[in-house]
Model the fold of this input.
Amino acid sequence: MVTHPIPPVFDRQSKVLILGSFPSVKSREAQFFYGHPQNRFWKVTSKVFGVPEPRTIEEKKCFLLSHGIAVWDVIASCDIEGSSDSSIKNVVPNDLTKILSVADIRTIFVNGKTAEKFYNKYIKDTIGREAVCLPSTSPANAAWSAERLVASWIQIKPVSIEN
Done:
């Protein structure tokens, strides 16, 4: 059983919640979201907002919060082999009310089909909210170029800047 080691990033101004499934080995080592150098999350989201790609954890937190984005994962703990989403078993979901009770989240997005599957199975009915599935930024999703990802992920922008 592996426990999620990274606290969520959010504040009262967060309008968009982006949920991954569970942090990869590299992210757990880095102690921050999307820590694998080949994951395209930071490249894609920074392009969506037309800003330089954040590099440090502090820059990444600042980028997220300044654009109304909250980030966490669906799973609080699970059995997992390495970073393999297909090996995930014995899921304990995160309690999203930690974020939803503070932030004015307008839309919940999930980063990829695995996050969508576990969100729908463990969280959707509990909080009564649908999530929009975006194509995964994982390097395992090689069918999607960075340009295609940006074209799909652009939908987070208008929600994040709503008043």
Observations:
- The domain at 2-160 is CATH 3.40.470.10 (Uracil-DNA Glycosylase, subunit E).
- The two ends are 41 Å apart (CA to CA).
- The chain has one domain: 2-160.
